[in-house]
Amino acid sequence: MNNKEVNSLNSLVPDCLSAAADGIELVLSRFEKNRNYPFIDTKLSTITGEDFVEPEDLEADFFGRTAIFGWIQGRGLEALAGHADFFKDKPALTARFKRMLSSVAAQTSAFKKKNGHFVFLAAPDGRPFKCGEDGRREYIQAKSVPPGFADLFTGKGLAAAGVALGNKEFTEQGVATFRFATSAVLDEKFESDQISFDPKNPAVPVPGRFGQGHYMIGLGGYALYSELFPGADEWIDGGSLFLRKLIDLHILKKDKRSLKRFDFVEFINEDGLPWLENGKVLQDPGHALEFTGLAAKFLLNASGKVSGAKEFKELYAECTELLPEVFLAAFENGFQKKTGGICKTFDLVSRTPVNGDMPWWSLPESLRAAGLLLCLAPNHPRYQEIIAAAFACKEALFGPFRSPVAGLFIQTRDAQGNPSTAIPATPDADPGYHTGLCFIDFIKACRRLQDKRFNSN
Protein backbone atom coordinates (compact mmCIF):
# COMPACT_ATOMS: atom_id res chain seq x y z
CA MET A 1 0.00 0.00 0.00
CA ASN A 2 1.23 3.48 -0.75
CA ASN A 3 0.58 6.80 0.95
CA LYS A 4 -2.11 7.77 -1.55
CA GLU A 5 -4.10 4.62 -0.80
CA VAL A 6 -3.75 5.04 2.95
CA ASN A 7 -4.88 8.66 2.68
CA SER A 8 -7.82 7.50 0.59
CA LEU A 9 -8.91 5.14 3.38
CA ASN A 10 -8.49 7.96 5.88
CA SER A 11 -11.15 9.91 3.99
CA LEU A 12 -13.71 7.46 5.44
CA VAL A 13 -12.71 8.19 9.03
CA PRO A 14 -14.62 11.44 9.73
CA ASP A 15 -18.05 9.93 9.05
CA CYS A 16 -17.16 6.83 11.07
CA LEU A 17 -15.97 8.95 13.96
CA SER A 18 -19.14 11.08 13.94
CA ALA A 19 -21.38 8.02 13.78
CA ALA A 20 -19.55 6.35 16.69
CA ALA A 21 -19.92 9.50 18.80
CA ASP A 22 -23.58 10.01 17.87
CA GLY A 23 -24.47 6.37 18.45
CA ILE A 24 -23.00 6.15 21.94
CA GLU A 25 -24.46 9.57 22.84
CA LEU A 26 -27.88 8.11 22.07
CA VAL A 27 -27.21 5.17 24.40
CA LEU A 28 -25.98 7.46 27.19
CA SER A 29 -28.72 10.07 26.87
CA ARG A 30 -31.57 7.54 26.83
CA PHE A 31 -30.17 5.99 30.01
CA GLU A 32 -29.85 9.39 31.69
CA LYS A 33 -33.44 10.34 30.86
CA ASN A 34 -34.76 7.36 32.79
CA ARG A 35 -32.48 6.65 35.76
CA ASN A 36 -35.08 4.26 37.19
CA TYR A 37 -34.44 1.89 34.28
CA PRO A 38 -30.99 0.32 34.90
CA PHE A 39 -30.70 -1.26 31.48
CA ILE A 40 -29.42 -0.31 28.04
CA ASP A 41 -32.45 1.07 26.23
CA THR A 42 -32.41 1.21 22.44
CA LYS A 43 -36.04 0.23 22.08
CA LEU A 44 -36.96 2.43 19.14
CA SER A 45 -37.62 2.10 15.43
CA THR A 46 -34.61 2.81 13.25
CA ILE A 47 -37.02 3.71 10.43
CA THR A 48 -39.17 6.31 12.23
CA GLY A 49 -37.07 7.10 15.29
CA GLU A 50 -40.10 6.55 17.52
CA ASP A 51 -40.04 4.47 20.69
CA PHE A 52 -41.82 1.13 20.61
CA VAL A 53 -45.29 1.27 22.16
CA GLU A 54 -45.83 -1.24 24.92
CA PRO A 55 -49.13 -3.14 24.80
CA GLU A 56 -51.58 -2.90 27.66
CA ASP A 57 -51.05 -6.60 28.25
CA LEU A 58 -47.37 -6.74 29.23
CA GLU A 59 -47.43 -10.53 29.09
CA ALA A 60 -47.57 -10.09 25.30
CA ASP A 61 -44.74 -7.53 25.21
CA PHE A 62 -41.58 -8.61 23.39
CA PHE A 63 -40.53 -5.17 22.14
CA GLY A 64 -40.93 -2.72 25.01
CA ARG A 65 -38.94 -1.97 28.14
CA THR A 66 -40.27 -5.00 30.00
CA ALA A 67 -38.45 -7.30 27.54
CA ILE A 68 -34.73 -7.41 28.42
CA PHE A 69 -32.49 -9.09 25.86
CA GLY A 70 -29.34 -10.66 27.28
CA TRP A 71 -27.65 -10.16 23.91
CA ILE A 72 -28.24 -6.41 24.02
CA GLN A 73 -27.11 -5.94 27.62
CA GLY A 74 -23.90 -7.89 27.00
CA ARG A 75 -23.17 -6.20 23.70
CA GLY A 76 -24.01 -2.83 25.17
CA LEU A 77 -21.61 -3.24 28.09
CA GLU A 78 -18.81 -4.16 25.69
CA ALA A 79 -19.69 -1.17 23.50
CA LEU A 80 -19.78 1.26 26.44
CA ALA A 81 -16.41 0.07 27.69
CA GLY A 82 -14.88 0.24 24.22
CA HIS A 83 -16.19 3.74 23.58
CA ALA A 84 -15.08 4.86 27.06
CA ASP A 85 -11.53 3.83 26.23
CA PHE A 86 -11.61 5.41 22.77
CA PHE A 87 -13.00 8.72 24.03
CA LYS A 88 -10.95 8.76 27.25
CA ASP A 89 -9.58 12.22 26.43
CA LYS A 90 -13.07 13.67 27.03
CA PRO A 91 -13.53 13.96 30.85
CA ALA A 92 -17.23 14.84 30.67
CA LEU A 93 -17.92 11.67 28.70
CA THR A 94 -15.77 9.57 31.02
CA ALA A 95 -17.95 10.38 34.02
CA ARG A 96 -21.10 9.51 32.09
CA PHE A 97 -19.63 6.23 30.88
CA LYS A 98 -18.69 5.22 34.41
CA ARG A 99 -22.13 5.99 35.81
CA MET A 100 -23.89 3.97 33.14
CA LEU A 101 -21.40 1.11 33.14
CA SER A 102 -21.67 0.80 36.92
CA SER A 103 -25.46 0.68 36.87
CA VAL A 104 -25.94 -1.68 33.94
CA ALA A 105 -23.12 -3.99 35.00
CA ALA A 106 -24.57 -4.21 38.52
CA GLN A 107 -27.98 -5.12 37.15
CA THR A 108 -26.49 -7.66 34.75
CA SER A 109 -24.44 -9.13 37.59
CA ALA A 110 -27.62 -9.45 39.66
CA PHE A 111 -29.25 -11.43 36.84
CA LYS A 112 -26.27 -13.78 36.87
CA LYS A 113 -26.51 -14.32 40.62
CA LYS A 114 -30.24 -14.95 40.42
CA ASN A 115 -30.32 -17.30 37.44
CA GLY A 116 -26.88 -18.88 37.34
CA HIS A 117 -26.35 -17.89 33.73
CA PHE A 118 -27.77 -15.61 31.05
CA VAL A 119 -30.69 -16.09 28.69
CA PHE A 120 -32.00 -14.46 25.53
CA LEU A 121 -35.05 -12.80 27.12
CA ALA A 122 -35.97 -11.87 30.68
CA ALA A 123 -38.32 -9.56 32.55
CA PRO A 124 -36.80 -6.58 34.42
CA ASP A 125 -36.94 -8.63 37.64
CA GLY A 126 -34.74 -11.26 36.03
CA ARG A 127 -37.36 -13.92 35.28
CA PRO A 128 -36.42 -15.66 31.99
CA PHE A 129 -39.14 -16.27 29.42
CA LYS A 130 -39.72 -17.39 25.87
CA CYS A 131 -42.58 -16.93 23.43
CA GLY A 132 -45.36 -19.44 24.04
CA GLU A 133 -47.56 -20.96 21.37
CA ASP A 134 -50.29 -18.44 22.23
CA GLY A 135 -47.95 -15.50 21.54
CA ARG A 136 -47.65 -14.69 25.22
CA ARG A 137 -44.73 -15.06 27.59
CA GLU A 138 -43.92 -18.48 28.87
CA TYR A 139 -41.72 -18.18 31.94
CA ILE A 140 -38.95 -20.72 32.26
CA GLN A 141 -36.11 -21.69 34.58
CA ALA A 142 -32.67 -20.54 33.43
CA LYS A 143 -31.19 -23.90 34.43
CA SER A 144 -33.44 -25.55 31.83
CA VAL A 145 -31.71 -23.54 29.10
CA PRO A 146 -28.26 -24.75 27.94
CA PRO A 147 -25.36 -22.29 27.69
CA GLY A 148 -25.96 -19.97 24.74
CA PHE A 149 -25.02 -16.74 23.01
CA ALA A 150 -26.29 -14.58 25.88
CA ASP A 151 -23.54 -16.12 28.02
CA LEU A 152 -20.89 -15.36 25.40
CA PHE A 153 -22.04 -11.77 24.91
CA THR A 154 -22.48 -11.06 28.61
CA GLY A 155 -19.21 -12.76 29.51
CA LYS A 156 -17.46 -10.37 27.16
CA GLY A 157 -19.44 -7.34 28.30
CA LEU A 158 -19.07 -7.85 32.03
CA ALA A 159 -15.32 -8.40 31.75
CA ALA A 160 -14.91 -5.29 29.60
CA ALA A 161 -17.00 -3.26 32.07
CA GLY A 162 -15.04 -4.62 35.02
CA VAL A 163 -11.70 -3.67 33.49
CA ALA A 164 -13.00 -0.21 32.52
CA LEU A 165 -14.29 0.40 36.05
CA GLY A 166 -11.48 -1.33 37.90
CA ASN A 167 -14.16 -3.57 39.43
CA LYS A 168 -12.75 -7.00 40.28
CA GLU A 169 -16.15 -8.60 40.89
CA PHE A 170 -17.53 -7.70 37.47
CA THR A 171 -14.28 -8.74 35.78
CA GLU A 172 -14.18 -12.13 37.49
CA GLN A 173 -17.86 -12.73 36.85
CA GLY A 174 -17.41 -11.93 33.16
CA VAL A 175 -14.39 -14.21 32.85
CA ALA A 176 -16.21 -17.06 34.62
CA THR A 177 -19.21 -16.63 32.32
CA PHE A 178 -17.03 -16.61 29.21
CA ARG A 179 -15.18 -19.73 30.35
CA PHE A 180 -18.53 -21.40 31.07
CA ALA A 181 -19.76 -20.64 27.55
CA THR A 182 -16.59 -21.55 25.66
CA SER A 183 -16.26 -24.81 27.60
CA ALA A 184 -19.83 -25.63 26.57
CA VAL A 185 -18.87 -24.98 22.95
CA LEU A 186 -15.97 -27.42 23.13
CA ASP A 187 -18.02 -29.98 25.08
CA GLU A 188 -20.84 -29.70 22.50
CA LYS A 189 -23.30 -28.58 25.18
CA PHE A 190 -23.82 -25.12 23.71
CA GLU A 191 -27.13 -24.25 22.00
CA SER A 192 -28.32 -21.11 20.29
CA ASP A 193 -30.73 -19.28 22.59
CA GLN A 194 -32.06 -16.95 19.89
CA ILE A 195 -35.80 -16.49 19.49
CA SER A 196 -36.42 -15.50 15.89
CA PHE A 197 -38.73 -12.57 15.08
CA ASP A 198 -38.32 -13.03 11.33
CA PRO A 199 -39.97 -16.00 9.51
CA LYS A 200 -37.35 -15.70 6.76
CA ASN A 201 -34.56 -16.11 9.30
CA PRO A 202 -35.59 -19.08 11.49
CA ALA A 203 -33.48 -19.93 14.55
CA VAL A 204 -34.74 -23.46 15.14
CA PRO A 205 -32.11 -26.17 15.79
CA VAL A 206 -31.92 -28.88 13.13
CA PRO A 207 -30.64 -32.33 14.21
CA GLY A 208 -27.26 -33.10 12.69
CA ARG A 209 -26.69 -29.53 11.49
CA PHE A 210 -23.93 -27.48 13.10
CA GLY A 211 -23.44 -23.74 12.65
CA GLN A 212 -20.33 -21.63 12.95
CA GLY A 213 -21.74 -18.82 15.11
CA HIS A 214 -20.66 -20.03 18.56
CA TYR A 215 -17.07 -20.40 17.39
CA MET A 216 -17.10 -16.99 15.71
CA ILE A 217 -18.54 -15.08 18.69
CA GLY A 218 -16.18 -17.01 20.94
CA LEU A 219 -13.28 -15.95 18.70
CA GLY A 220 -14.45 -12.35 19.08
CA GLY A 221 -14.32 -12.85 22.84
CA TYR A 222 -10.78 -14.15 22.66
CA ALA A 223 -9.83 -11.13 20.55
CA LEU A 224 -11.26 -8.84 23.24
CA TYR A 225 -9.69 -10.80 26.11
CA SER A 226 -6.28 -10.73 24.39
CA GLU A 227 -6.63 -6.94 24.52
CA LEU A 228 -8.01 -6.72 28.06
CA PHE A 229 -5.52 -9.20 29.53
CA PRO A 230 -2.42 -8.97 27.33
CA GLY A 231 0.06 -11.80 27.47
CA ALA A 232 -2.27 -14.38 29.05
CA ASP A 233 -1.71 -17.73 27.33
CA GLU A 234 -5.25 -18.90 28.08
CA TRP A 235 -6.82 -16.38 25.73
CA ILE A 236 -4.23 -16.75 22.96
CA ASP A 237 -4.45 -20.54 23.07
CA GLY A 238 -8.25 -20.47 23.19
CA GLY A 239 -8.54 -18.03 20.31
CA SER A 240 -6.09 -20.05 18.24
CA LEU A 241 -8.16 -23.19 18.83
CA PHE A 242 -11.46 -21.52 17.89
CA LEU A 243 -9.89 -19.94 14.80
CA ARG A 244 -8.46 -23.30 13.73
CA LYS A 245 -11.89 -24.92 14.13
CA LEU A 246 -13.47 -22.30 11.87
CA ILE A 247 -10.75 -22.62 9.24
CA ASP A 248 -10.85 -26.42 9.19
CA LEU A 249 -14.62 -26.88 9.35
CA HIS A 250 -16.20 -23.92 7.58
CA ILE A 251 -13.80 -22.76 4.84
CA LEU A 252 -13.58 -24.73 1.61
CA LYS A 253 -10.04 -25.67 0.70
CA LYS A 254 -10.68 -26.29 -3.01
CA ASP A 255 -13.31 -25.98 -5.71
CA LYS A 256 -15.92 -28.73 -5.63
CA ARG A 257 -18.55 -28.56 -8.36
CA SER A 258 -20.29 -25.20 -7.90
CA LEU A 259 -18.74 -24.63 -4.48
CA LYS A 260 -15.55 -22.62 -4.65
CA ARG A 261 -12.32 -22.44 -2.75
CA PHE A 262 -12.52 -19.86 0.07
CA ASP A 263 -16.32 -20.15 0.40
CA PHE A 264 -17.28 -19.81 4.06
CA VAL A 265 -20.06 -22.32 4.84
CA GLU A 266 -22.64 -21.44 7.48
CA PHE A 267 -23.59 -25.02 8.41
CA ILE A 268 -21.89 -28.41 8.30
CA ASN A 269 -23.11 -31.95 8.95
CA GLU A 270 -21.85 -34.58 11.39
CA ASP A 271 -19.12 -35.58 8.93
CA GLY A 272 -17.80 -32.02 8.71
CA LEU A 273 -19.14 -31.55 5.18
CA PRO A 274 -21.24 -28.58 3.95
CA TRP A 275 -24.87 -28.97 5.02
CA LEU A 276 -26.98 -29.65 1.92
CA GLU A 277 -30.72 -29.02 2.22
CA ASN A 278 -33.21 -28.75 -0.63
CA GLY A 279 -30.28 -28.67 -3.02
CA LYS A 280 -28.78 -25.62 -1.32
CA VAL A 281 -25.61 -24.96 0.69
CA LEU A 282 -26.10 -21.74 2.60
CA GLN A 283 -23.69 -18.96 3.35
CA ASP A 284 -24.48 -15.90 5.43
CA PRO A 285 -22.10 -13.48 3.68
CA GLY A 286 -22.28 -11.06 6.60
CA HIS A 287 -21.16 -13.74 9.02
CA ALA A 288 -18.30 -14.70 6.71
CA LEU A 289 -17.17 -11.07 6.54
CA GLU A 290 -17.58 -10.59 10.28
CA PHE A 291 -15.49 -13.71 10.89
CA THR A 292 -12.54 -12.36 8.90
CA GLY A 293 -12.59 -9.14 10.92
CA LEU A 294 -12.74 -10.88 14.29
CA ALA A 295 -10.02 -13.31 13.22
CA ALA A 296 -7.76 -10.46 12.10
CA LYS A 297 -8.45 -8.60 15.35
CA PHE A 298 -7.51 -11.64 17.42
CA LEU A 299 -4.31 -12.24 15.47
CA LEU A 300 -3.22 -8.61 15.66
CA ASN A 301 -4.01 -8.35 19.40
CA ALA A 302 -2.23 -11.60 20.19
CA SER A 303 0.76 -11.29 17.88
CA GLY A 304 2.77 -8.93 20.07
CA LYS A 305 2.23 -11.02 23.18
CA VAL A 306 3.36 -14.44 21.92
CA SER A 307 6.96 -15.44 22.49
CA GLY A 308 8.32 -18.30 20.41
CA ALA A 309 4.97 -20.04 19.85
CA LYS A 310 5.58 -21.87 16.58
CA GLU A 311 1.96 -22.94 16.13
CA PHE A 312 0.66 -19.39 16.50
CA LYS A 313 3.22 -18.00 14.07
CA GLU A 314 2.23 -20.62 11.51
CA LEU A 315 -1.45 -19.82 12.03
CA TYR A 316 -0.74 -16.10 11.64
CA ALA A 317 1.19 -16.66 8.41
CA GLU A 318 -1.55 -18.91 7.03
CA CYS A 319 -4.20 -16.30 7.79
CA THR A 320 -2.36 -13.46 6.06
CA GLU A 321 -2.94 -15.39 2.83
CA LEU A 322 -6.30 -16.98 3.64
CA LEU A 323 -8.44 -14.32 5.34
CA PRO A 324 -8.29 -11.68 2.56
CA GLU A 325 -9.44 -14.34 0.09
CA VAL A 326 -12.34 -15.41 2.33
CA PHE A 327 -13.31 -11.75 2.77
CA LEU A 328 -13.32 -11.03 -0.96
CA ALA A 329 -15.19 -14.25 -1.81
CA ALA A 330 -17.95 -13.44 0.70
CA PHE A 331 -18.13 -9.84 -0.45
CA GLU A 332 -18.50 -10.92 -4.07
CA ASN A 333 -21.27 -13.34 -3.09
CA GLY A 334 -23.19 -11.02 -0.81
CA PHE A 335 -22.83 -7.41 -1.88
CA GLN A 336 -25.73 -6.18 -3.99
CA LYS A 337 -24.39 -3.43 -6.24
CA LYS A 338 -27.77 -2.14 -7.42
CA THR A 339 -29.33 -1.69 -3.99
CA GLY A 340 -26.21 -1.21 -1.85
CA GLY A 341 -26.21 -3.83 0.88
CA ILE A 342 -25.25 -7.40 1.71
CA CYS A 343 -27.88 -10.12 1.36
CA LYS A 344 -28.73 -12.21 4.41
CA THR A 345 -28.23 -15.65 2.86
CA PHE A 346 -26.63 -16.90 -0.34
CA ASP A 347 -26.78 -20.34 -1.96
CA LEU A 348 -23.30 -21.60 -2.79
CA VAL A 349 -24.72 -24.16 -5.23
CA SER A 350 -26.73 -21.88 -7.53
CA ARG A 351 -24.54 -18.87 -6.60
CA THR A 352 -27.64 -16.72 -6.01
CA PRO A 353 -29.18 -14.98 -2.98
CA VAL A 354 -31.77 -16.96 -0.99
CA ASN A 355 -32.92 -14.30 1.47
CA GLY A 356 -32.42 -10.98 -0.28
CA ASP A 357 -33.07 -8.89 2.85
CA MET A 358 -30.05 -6.76 3.72
CA PRO A 359 -29.35 -6.20 7.43
CA TRP A 360 -27.29 -3.15 8.36
CA TRP A 361 -24.76 -4.83 10.63
CA SER A 362 -22.78 -6.61 7.91
CA LEU A 363 -21.66 -3.28 6.42
CA PRO A 364 -19.80 -1.88 9.47
CA GLU A 365 -18.49 -5.38 10.20
CA SER A 366 -17.06 -5.40 6.66
CA LEU A 367 -15.50 -1.99 7.19
CA ARG A 368 -13.81 -3.25 10.34
CA ALA A 369 -12.66 -6.40 8.56
CA ALA A 370 -11.24 -4.46 5.61
CA GLY A 371 -9.22 -2.15 7.84
CA LEU A 372 -7.86 -4.93 10.03
CA LEU A 373 -7.06 -7.21 7.09
CA LEU A 374 -5.04 -4.43 5.51
CA CYS A 375 -3.06 -4.20 8.76
CA LEU A 376 -2.68 -7.97 8.90
CA ALA A 377 -1.67 -8.38 5.25
CA PRO A 378 -0.76 -4.96 3.80
CA ASN A 379 1.07 -6.53 0.87
CA HIS A 380 -1.57 -9.07 -0.11
CA PRO A 381 -1.83 -9.10 -3.92
CA ARG A 382 -5.55 -8.21 -3.77
CA TYR A 383 -5.34 -5.40 -1.20
CA GLN A 384 -6.76 -2.86 -3.65
CA GLU A 385 -9.94 -4.94 -3.92
CA ILE A 386 -10.24 -4.85 -0.13
CA ILE A 387 -9.99 -1.06 -0.22
CA ALA A 388 -12.67 -0.94 -2.91
CA ALA A 389 -14.94 -3.12 -0.78
CA ALA A 390 -14.47 -0.79 2.18
CA PHE A 391 -15.56 2.18 0.08
CA ALA A 392 -18.61 0.30 -1.25
CA CYS A 393 -19.73 -0.66 2.27
CA LYS A 394 -19.23 2.83 3.63
CA GLU A 395 -21.19 4.38 0.76
CA ALA A 396 -24.11 2.00 1.28
CA LEU A 397 -24.17 2.34 5.06
CA PHE A 398 -24.00 6.13 5.10
CA GLY A 399 -26.33 6.37 2.12
CA PRO A 400 -29.53 4.29 1.88
CA PHE A 401 -29.14 2.78 5.36
CA ARG A 402 -29.15 6.18 7.09
CA SER A 403 -31.69 6.39 9.90
CA PRO A 404 -33.45 9.60 10.97
CA VAL A 405 -31.77 8.99 14.34
CA ALA A 406 -28.16 10.22 14.37
CA GLY A 407 -25.75 7.36 14.96
CA LEU A 408 -28.23 4.65 13.98
CA PHE A 409 -28.86 2.87 10.70
CA ILE A 410 -31.98 1.22 9.31
CA GLN A 411 -31.94 -2.33 10.64
CA THR A 412 -33.06 -4.01 7.42
CA ARG A 413 -33.72 -3.14 3.78
CA ASP A 414 -35.46 -5.60 1.51
CA ALA A 415 -34.17 -7.02 -1.77
CA GLN A 416 -35.52 -3.99 -3.64
CA GLY A 417 -33.73 -1.64 -1.28
CA ASN A 418 -36.80 -0.43 0.63
CA PRO A 419 -36.74 -0.04 4.43
CA SER A 420 -38.14 -3.21 6.00
CA THR A 421 -39.56 -4.01 9.43
CA ALA A 422 -37.83 -7.41 9.39
CA ILE A 423 -35.85 -7.94 12.60
CA PRO A 424 -32.36 -9.42 12.13
CA ALA A 425 -31.96 -10.63 15.73
CA THR A 426 -33.62 -8.38 18.33
CA PRO A 427 -36.10 -5.50 17.97
CA ASP A 428 -33.71 -3.27 19.98
CA ALA A 429 -31.49 -1.02 17.90
CA ASP A 430 -27.76 -1.61 18.03
CA PRO A 431 -26.19 -0.24 21.27
CA GLY A 432 -22.88 0.57 19.56
CA TYR A 433 -21.70 -3.02 19.19
CA HIS A 434 -21.89 -3.67 15.44
CA THR A 435 -21.65 0.02 14.61
CA GLY A 436 -19.50 2.00 17.03
CA LEU A 437 -17.05 -0.75 17.95
CA CYS A 438 -16.57 -1.57 14.26
CA PHE A 439 -16.02 2.11 13.43
CA ILE A 440 -13.49 2.40 16.26
CA ASP A 441 -11.54 -0.62 15.05
CA PHE A 442 -11.60 0.74 11.50
CA ILE A 443 -10.34 4.14 12.67
CA LYS A 444 -7.57 2.50 14.69
CA ALA A 445 -6.61 0.41 11.67
CA CYS A 446 -6.36 3.53 9.50
CA ARG A 447 -4.15 5.18 12.12
CA ARG A 448 -1.98 2.08 12.28
CA LEU A 449 -1.59 2.01 8.51
CA GLN A 450 -0.80 5.74 8.50
CA ASP A 451 1.88 5.29 11.15
CA LYS A 452 3.35 2.39 9.22
CA ARG A 453 3.55 4.44 6.02
CA PHE A 454 5.00 7.43 7.86
CA ASN A 455 7.62 5.36 9.64
CA SER A 456 8.69 3.64 6.44
CA ASN A 457 9.43 6.92 4.62
What count of domains describes the coordinates? 2
CATH topology of the largest domain: Glycosyltransferase
Largest sheet: 3 strands, antiparallel
Q: If you compute it from the alpha carbons, what radius of gyration comes out, rounded to the nearest whole angstrom? A: 21 Å
Descriptive overview:
With 457 residues, the chain is mainly alpha-helical. It has 2 domains: 1-37 and 224-425 and 427-457, Glycosyltransferase (Alpha/alpha barrel), CATH 1.50.10.10; 64-197, no CATH class. The protein is built from 13 helices and 14 strands. It has helices at 3-10, 13-33, 70-86, 91-115, 149-165, 168-186, 213-228, 233-250, 285-303, 310-334, 362-376, 383-397, 436-456, and strands at 68-69, 121-122, 129-131, 137-139, 210-211, 267-268, 282-283, 335-336, 341-342, 345-347, 352-355, 358-359, 412-413, 419-420. It has a 3-stranded antiparallel beta sheet with strand order 7-10-11. A 3-stranded antiparallel beta sheet has the order 12-13-14, with no helix packed on it. A two-stranded antiparallel ribbon has the order 1-2. A hairpin with a 4-residue loop joins strand 10 and strand 11 (352-355). The longest helix is centred in the N-terminal third of the chain and has 25 residues, at 91-115. The protein is globular and about 55 Å long. The model has no long low-confidence stretch (mean pLDDT 95).
